[in-house]
Amino acid sequence: MSTLQIDQVSKLFAASSRGGEITPALRQVSFGIDRGEVVTLIGESGSGKTTLGKIILRLTLPTSGTVTFEGDDISRFKGTRLRDYYRNVQGVFQDPFSSYNPIYRADRVFELIRGVYFAHLPHPAWQAKIESALQAVALNPGDVLGKYPHQLSGGQQQRLLIARALLLHVKLLVADEIISMLDASTRVDILNLLISLKRSGLAILFITHDLSLGNYVSDRTIILRHGAIVEMGDTVKVFTHPRHSYTQSLLAAVPELHKKWDPLGLEAAAPPRIASAPVALRAPALTECEPGHLVAEEEDEAVLTQAS
After folding, report:
1. Pairing of strands 64-69, 72-73
2. For 77-130, how does the pLDDT look when each residue is reduced to its tens digit (9 = 90+)?
3. Number of continuous H segments (helices) and E segments (strands) in the chain
4. Positions of E strands within 121-269
5. Segment (H or E) for 23
């Protein structure tokens, strides 16, 4: 049994224009995440990847389909069961600074956790727990505790948020574009931290639009387009033998450091533009093209999209 199982999840929205017609943000998405595995969800802006992260975190509900955690449907969780779910599943997001109240010291994020989950833990034991979590994310307690958010770097802020999740001994971390606002050297540090946490048994859903980051960190890769999975499988197989035309175009558009910029070449390789409203509500069928590697049927662009 997967730690988290997503089964035929769809999310529909009524468009604010076009007479309120239905726009699918997700279309019959299905996959699982196992203990000690990093699954990368890759897609352009508007592909539905952040919507899926919010559904997993119970910040929004799916229109149809189910998300199960260790065999239990999370939509049924209320009260104590929902609190216990958040003890096992946490999210870290793109802009770390937005997770802090600038008028409080940054480590207040730990105190909020303590009030819910560790209210009866003696102060010395609580401090030891915080220091252990900080050391797990390579932070020196003396460098971060007691500081205000503006006194910390973006990398330190993200590590504090990951440490907060580790305080709860979470089983699944939803990491949504968590390094896109960080500088290159800090990005590598955070990615290596995720790999280290994976080795300790943490399941991670790594959401990104950057193929190179997904290739670096993940065991399995899922390519999402117009809210549907178009390719999915072992990361090495997806990146070295892409089968769907969309995956191929995404990989062709990745800049190569050893080549000069070629605007004509990049334009030719650029992935198709996401139109404003997918028409097809059903996802294309997935078939196994090789063991552990699935690819969707190609969709007719004329049917799939309509002009803005």
Report:
1. antiparallel
2. 999 999 999 999 999 887 777 888 899 998 888 988 888 899 899 999 999 999
3. 12, 12
4. 172-176, 203-208, 220-225, 228-234
5. strand 22-33
Distance between CA atoms of residues 216 and 76, nearest Å: 36
* Backbone region of residue 265 per phi and psi (left: phi > 0; alpha: psi in -120 to 50; beta: other values): alpha
Residue whose token pair is 């090495």: 236
> What per-residue confidence (pLDDT) applies to 107?
86
For the entire predicted model, the pTM comes to 0.85
Can you list the residues of the chain whose pLDDT is less than 50?
Answer: 266-268, 270, 273-277, 306-308
Q: Which residues are bridge partners to 203 per DSSP?
A: 172
Taking only Cα atoms into account, the Rg of the chain, rounded to an integer number of angstroms, comes to: 20
Please tell me the total number of residues recorded for the chain in this structure.
308
Alpha-carbon separation of residue 188 from 89, 93, 155, 216, 217 (angstroms):
24, 17, 10, 9, 10
For position 31, what pLDDT does the model report? Answer: 97
CA triplet 74, 225, 90: central angle to 5 degrees?
30
Query: Could you tell me if 107 and 192 are in contact, meaning their C-beta atoms sit under 8 angstroms apart?
Result: no
CA distances from 244 to 228, 287, 288, 292, 297 (A): 13, 11, 12, 15, 8
**126's tokens:** 């609580």
